[in-house]
Write a structure and sequence with these properties.
Blueprint: E1 5-9, E2 25-30, E3 41-45, E4 49-54, H1 68-71, E5 78-86, E6 91-96, H2 100-114
Length: 119
């Protein structure tokens, strides 16, 4: 599959970007019943829940990344992204391929480090 880069935005409405680190894996899920955007894709993290959305406005989509609308038909209903860069109001990421179990295990390890419970 061709590499797909996306922008995550809206974190300030939830937990901010302080819980996210470069290299982290995040869950994404299409939200077709969203009343504001039929192409909405939410970004989730276990324990926290929704932490933002894939950007879908020309004002929030970072240059070189796809909007949620352009990526919508290229991704599964549920997929994962890896954080590449963290900016003040945006996170740049790419769609991550791999086994669901491996990606979920990576997320669990991230949360343990965040909670300082790693070895």
């Amino acid at each position: 599959m061709k590499e797909i880069s996306l922008t995550i935005t809206g974190m300030r409405h939830y937990y901010g970007n302080g819980i996210i680190h470069v290299g982290d894996i995040l869950r994404c899920k299409k939200e077709p019943d969203n009343e504001y955007d039929e192409d909405a894709i939410q970004v989730l993290l276990p324990v926290y829940g929704k932490i933002g959305y894939i950007a879908n406005s020309p004002y929030t989509v970072a240059k070189g990344t796809l909007s949620a609308g352009r990526a919508y038909d290229q991704v599964k209903k549920k997929f994962y992204v890896r954080v590449l860069y963290i900016c003040t109001n945006q996170i740049i990421c790419r769609v991550e391929e791999g086994r669901k179990e491996d990606l979920e295990n990576r997320i669990i390890r991230q949360l343990r480090v965040l909670d300082n419970t790693e070895f």
